[in-house]
Every structure is written in structure tokens, then in C-alpha cells.
Specification:
Growth Hormone, Chain: A; mainly alpha; single chain; 0% strand; 22 helices; transmembrane; MFS_trans_sf
Length: 439
């Protein structure tokens, strides 16, 4: 019997759109140090960052709405249709930020435009995560799903790297005054144009066999496809997604989107050095995802999740404390990379784990809504909470907060069932039953 192969065309097709989605999402955070003063009155730098971080967090609170609406759409109209819709919304929101007026010209109206754009991005990303996770998982045969689904975070991280890379280029070709004046708009224009290209590419994707099978053989589930009623039949799995996401999303946003600000605002590194540290560490982090995803296909998902839980619970306080005192690129890079290696146990497989928990007729919504709720409560607020602790003079309290969230998720990892061998369709289940009978 030949070994199952990864359908790379589907993986690339699903991932490239995810890259643009997350480029647009994260570029807001990475360029906030330049445009914060454009939308709020001049004053305390930390206060301006708090305002922009607050709008960043508000975008996360639209993610449950997007998860519900677009998750339902993906379960009813197909994964391909949902992927196309999400990237369209993201392109529009990026363009809106690019043309947003400043505080000096229209007062707080510019901040309102920024807020509306972030709400649209939240709506889009709330559906993108589930549509991408579901598509990558369903399009791949058993035994390769961990590897294939890991490309979701490869593409997410690649989106960040493109944003950071563009930031490095602009930092070295433009003055800080020019960046604060108009240069920060450039990455949003790039994102809007790139999303338009991906819209065209995603139209050529094939629908997954699992969804096509569900369309043909609904067997009484058609009315419950993508509905809250259908999701409530899987309350345990939905709560499990929220709990296992809690620690992972806080740690992820701490070591990715917040890290550049932390190294600049707390450790005292220059913005250029902090950006370079994040770029180099994230590149290696991206390369680790397929290795860890492939490992989970061999040893299971739980061992990686448990490793992350233990490492994040015990390692966050000493790592963040050490990072606050770094004085150059080398130390900051090494410590940041250690943190990213720890969270690889979560990021490389969290998408496939969630998809493997639900049946086809409710899979996209089951992944989208609970995950979006967890991100709204913990991921989207991580940066704001960190800056609040700093502004209150007790920055170390944030380190303990991250450790506590990881501890809660660790309990879930230790008690949850293994999902690696879950059948995602009737055909897979029949094949699995046939193998069992022959054995």
C-alpha cells in the first residue's frame, strides 16, 4: 500500500491567502509605533500605544461574529467560497486603513475610520482561521494532516515576516518623520493589492471531498449544518477548543506581535534592532512548524501540546524577565527564539486538533466560534493587558498572567483525548472499519 501524499497544490492554495490575511492583520501591530501619533493627540507614547492597542483588541471582539457568520457560511456553502469571501473583506479593510485621515485633519474621525477597518478585519479573520484550518485538514489524507495543517502557521508567520521585512526596508530608506507622516500607509496599500491577487487564485481551488460528501449524503444533518443548534450538540468539544486555545493564544501574541514593542519600550532597544530580532526569530519559528506538525503525525497531538503547556507555564516569567534586561541583538534574539520554540508545540497543530474534534456538517463553525471567543478574551487583549501592567508600574504581573493562562490549558491537554486518528468523513470511517475488521 502506497503512503498517503500531501496535496501540495491545495496546501499552497489555502495557505497563500492565509499569508495575506495575516499580513494585513499583523501589520497593524508592527507599524503601530509609527501611526499611533497620527490618530490621537500628542502626549505620552505609552498612552498612544494603549489607544492603538485598544483598537487592535476591539478587532478581536469581532472575531466571534466573523467566526459565527463565516463559519456557518463555510459549512453551508463550502470551504472554497468562505476562503474567497474572507480575503475580499480583508482587502477592503486594508485599503480603508491606508486612506484613513489623521487626527490633525479631522480629529477623532480618523480613529473612527481605523476602528471600522479593524472591525472588518476582525470579521474576516474570524472566518479565515476556521475556513483555512478546515480546508487544509480535510484536503489532506490521514497520516499527513499534522504536517499539512502546520502550514497555517507557516503562512501566518510568513505574513508577519513580509510585514516586518517591509518595515525594515522602509526604516532603512525613509526617515522616522517620513514614516510617521505617510510611510506607514505603504504596507496597507501593499496588503490590499496582494489580497486582490489572492482572490483570483483562490477561485481556482477545489472543494474538499469531505464537504462534497456531506453535500451528497447529508443524512439528516443538512438542516443543522453550520447552526448554533448543531454546535450545541457538541458543547464539550466547543468548550475544549476555548480552554486549549487560552494559553496558546496569549503566549503566541506575547512572543510575536507584542515582542517588538516590548523590546523597544521596555528593554530599550532601538526600533530597528527590535524589528530585526523579531524578523530573524520568526523566520526560524516558521521553519519549525512543519517539523513539529509532521512529528505529531507520528507520536500524536497531545505530547506536543503538553510540552508547550509545561514550557510556557514554567518558562514565561524567567524568559520575559531576562528579555527586559537585554542590551543587544544577540541576547534578545536567543531569548525570543526560546519562547517561540516553546509555543511551537501549540501553534504547529492547534488547527488540526480543533478540526479533528468535530463532524463535517459543523466542523467550520465548531472551529471558528469557540476559537474566536478564546482569542477575543485572551489573544486580542494580550498586548493591551501587557501595556496596562507596564503603565501601572507592575509590568512583571503580565508575565505571571501568561503563565497562569498556560497552566489552565495544560490541565486540558493532560485530560483531553488524542485526535490524531479521527476519521473526518464517512469514507474515512468506512475505510478505518474495514482495516479493523481485516486485522
Amino acid at each position: 500500500m502506497s503512503k498517503p501524499r500531501v496535496p501540495w497544490k491545495s496546501v499552497v492554495g489555502g495557505s497563500i491567502g492565509n499569508l495575506v490575511e495575516w499580513y494585513d492583520w499583523f501589520v497593524y501591530s508592527s507599524f503601530a509605533v509609527y501611526f499611533a501619533s497620527s490618530f490621537f493627540p500628542k502626549g505620552n507614547t505609552t498612552a498612544q500605544l494603549l489607544n492603538t492597542a485598544g483598537i487592535f483588541a476591539v478587532g478581536f471582539f469581532m472575531r466571534p461574529v466573523g467566526g459565527w457568520l463565516l463559519g456557518r457560511f463555510a459549512d453551508r456553502k463550502g470551504r472554497k467560497a468562505a476562503l474567497t469571501l474572507t480575503v475580499t473583506l480583508m482587502s477592503a479593510s486594508a485599503l480603508l486603513i491606508a486612506i484613513a485621515p489623521t487626527y490633525e485633519s479631522v480629529g477623532y474621525f480618523g480613529a473612527v475610520v481605523l476602528l471600522v477597518a479593524r472591525l472588518l478585519q476582525g470579521l474576516s479573520v474570524g472566518g479565515e482561521y476556521a475556513a483555512s484550518a478546515t480546508y487544509l485538514t480535510e484536503a489532506t489524507p490521514p497520516g499527513k494532516r499534522g504536517l499539512a495543517s502546520s502550514f497555517q502557521y507557516v503562512s501566518m508567520t510568513a505574513g508577519q515576516l513580509v510585514g516586518l521585512g517591509l518595515q525594515i526596508i522602509l526604516q532603512n530608506t525613509m526617515s522616522e518623520e517620513a514614516l510617521k507622516s505617510y510611510g506607514w500607509r505603504i504596507p496597507f496599500i501593499v496588503g490590499a493589492l496582494a489580497a486582490a491577487v489572492v482572490f483570483y487564485l483562490r477561485r481556482s481551488l477545489m472543494e474538499t471531498e469531505a464537504y462534497d460528501e456531506e453535500e451528497r449524503e447529508a443524512d439528516g444533518t443538512a438542516a443543522r449544518r453550520g447552526t448554533i443548534k448543531g454546535l450545541l450538540e457538541h458543547k464539550k468539544e466547543a468548550l475544549l477548543v476555548i480552554a486549549l486555545t487560552m494559553g496558546g493564544t496569549v503566549a503566541y501574541y506575547t512572543y510575536t506581535t507584542y515582542m517588538t514593542k516590548y523590546l523597544s519600550n521596555t528593554a530599550g532597544l532601538s526600533k530597528e534592532t527590535a524589528t530585526l530580532v523579531s524578523f530573524c526569530a520568526l523566520f526560524l519559528f516558521m521553519c519549525l512548524q512543519p517539523l513539529a506538525g509532521g512529528l505529531s503525525d507520528r507520536i500524536g497531538r497531545r505530547p506536543l501540546l503538553i510540552t508547550f503547556g509545561v514550557g510556557s507555564m514554567l518558562g514565561t516569567v524567567p524568559l520575559m524577565t531576562a528579555l527586559s534586561g537585554v542590551s543587544g541583538f544577540g541576547g534578545a534574539f536567543a531569548l525570543s527564539l526560546i519562547g517561540l520554540i516553546i509555543i511551537t508545540g501549540y501553534t504547529s497543530i492547534n488547527a488540526v486538533v480543533k478540526a479533528e474534534l468535530f463532524p463535517t456538517h459543523i466542523r467550520a463553525l465548531g472551529v471558528a466560534l469557540p476559537y474566536a471567543i478564546a482569542n477575543a478574551l485572551f489573544g486580542g487583549t494580550a498586548e493591551y493587558v501587557a501595556l496596562w501592567f507596564k503603565d501601572s508600574g507592575i509590568e512583571s504581573g503580565f508575565y505571571w498572567y501568561v503563565s497562569g493562562c498556560a497552566a489552565v490549558s495544560l490541565v486540558v491537554y493532560l485530560t483531553m483525548r488524542e485526535t490524531r486518528d479521527a476519521a473526518l468523513s464517512r469514507a474515512e470511517q468506512a475505510k478505518s472499519d474495514s482495516v479493523t475488521v481485516r486485522v
